[in-house]
Amino acid sequence: MPVPVPKLGSYQFVAETKENLDWADLVTVDLSSYGTPEANKKLAQFLIQAIREKGFFYVKNFNISQERVNRQFAIGREYYELPLEEKLKYVPDLDNGKFNGYTPAGRRTIDTATGLKDRIEIYNIPKFNGHFPQEFPAPVKEHLEEIEEFARALHTEVLDPLFVLLAIGLELPEDYFTNIHRYEEKSEDHLRYMKYGKYSPEENAKLNHWGRGHTDLGSFTLLFRQPVAALQIRDPTTGGFKWVKPQDGTLTVNSCDALSFLTGNYVKSTIHRVTVPPKDQQHVDRLGLLYFSRPENDVKLATIKESPVLQREGYTENDFERSSNPVPTMEEWTFAKQKWQRTPHRYDKSEYRTATILPGFQEKNYDEPGAITGY
User: Fold this and answer.
1) 3 state SS of 265
2) How do beta strands 190-196 and 120-126 pair?
3) Residue pair 335/92 in contact by the 8 Å Cβ criterion
4) 36 — pLDDT class (breaks 50, 70, 90)
5) What whole-number distance in Å separates Cα of residue 80 and Cα of residue 180?
6) Are 85 and 150 a contacting pair, CB within 8 Å?
7) On the CB side of 156, how many CA atoms lie within 13 Å of its CA?
8) pLDDT tier, 372 (very low <50, low <70, confident <90, very high otherwise)
9) Total-model pTM
10) For residue 288, what is the enclosing H or E element?
């Protein structure tokens, strides 16, 4: 019997925390002035500062209305109202690194002393470019045209400008990065609705965090404003974790592994985690709306030799090149790391946290003191 699709109502965000947290001081890239050579040069300097010093930054005035964003949160809410047995129909081959579709909660132990499992649910939607035929559950299928329009807008209104600014900052042709992030080509980009189920006060008291420190594997990750404070980033200078404050009308963006490889670690792939929210927000689930951008699958993750900036600054090799191991394509890197990420109970053994993802690249335990450098 088909699952009935409820009418999509408005989305109400929880109130922000009143606790005085140690917020990270992040750069804001304002795209309202984007488009002229002078403005783009200035914006590129802001972007380079952000991805060199913190790896996380805000973007505002990106020409996507809050109403459109709210509707995506509402779609995500309706999806997670589905019965578990319905969501389980859309689970991909997680153990072999597949990730489009539904990942159920409980695949990781987050407190080894008590055996407490994670309560993280993920639903990923790939690009709408013909390379990823997929069946969709009713709440998603009902709004598929709107979801596609939203995902494509993230490329034209947010990602393409950021890639142009990055190219300017590295003294490359302006289309250098847009040419390896074309929407119509095959890449493992995806839109994500992500739910962190709440824990009881007693359970939260035993937890240090809901997810361990990690980096993302692609180019840029876009995170829409989520007022439940839980995201923390690791300061590359001090090694300490700071909270990321939700800012009205902004996206929170972080640079990721692929850009770090392509720039010989000039661009930082930022360590971040999701921790236990403040006490005044622990009574609610945390729904996230994200977009993960990745280079096209056939792009080889070798350091860009054409950049005068990288040459002058001495960023001429990445981990693979330095170790004389084969440099992977983006597709090879994606599925090697996704297979590692999707392994059930992967944090139960400490040796897993420092596993070799591919020859030449070893994972790091980013929650331990001293592990402060990005990829």
Assistant:
1) coil
2) antiparallel
3) no
4) very high
5) 34
6) no
7) 9
8) very low
9) 0.94
10) strand 286-292
Instruction: Look at strands 250-255 and 56-60 and give their pairing.
Output: antiparallel
Mean model confidence pLDDT for the chain: 91
> Using the 8-state DSSP alphabet, how is residue 110 labeled?
E
Q: Which H or E run includes 84?
A: helix 84-87
Question: If we measure between CA atoms, which residue out of 76, 71, 58 comes closest to residue 248?
Answer: 58
Q: What's the full length of the chain, in residues?
A: 375
Residues with Cβ < 8 Å from 351, sequence gap 6 or more? none
**Token reading at 366:** 């980013």
Tokens 């596993």 belong to which residue?
355
- Per DSSP bridges, beta strands 361-362 and 272-274 are unpaired
Cα–Cα distance for residue pair 375/353, rounded to 1 Å = 15
CA 356 to chain centre: 21
Please measure the distance between the N-terminal and C-terminal CA atoms of the chain and give it in whole angstroms: 48
Element containing residue 77 per DSSP (H, E)? helix 66-80
286: Cβ–Cβ under 8 A, 6 or more apart, which residues? 195, 196, 198, 226, 228, 230, 274, 277
Residues paired with 28 in a beta bridge: 58
Helices (H) and strands (E) in the chain, counts: 11, 15
Map out the domains of the chain with their CATH numbers. 28-362 (2.60.120.330)
Give the pLDDT score at 212: 81
Tell me: the pLDDT tens digits for 42-72? Answer: 999 999 999 998 889 999 999 999 999 999 9
User: Strand, coil or helix: what is 253?
Assistant: strand
Please give the DSSP secondary-structure letter assigned to residue 43: H
Picking from 228, 222, 224, the residue whose alpha carbon sits closest to that of residue 243 is 228
Distance separating alpha carbons of residues 216 and 222, to the nearest angstrom: 11
Supply the pLDDT for residue 166: 98
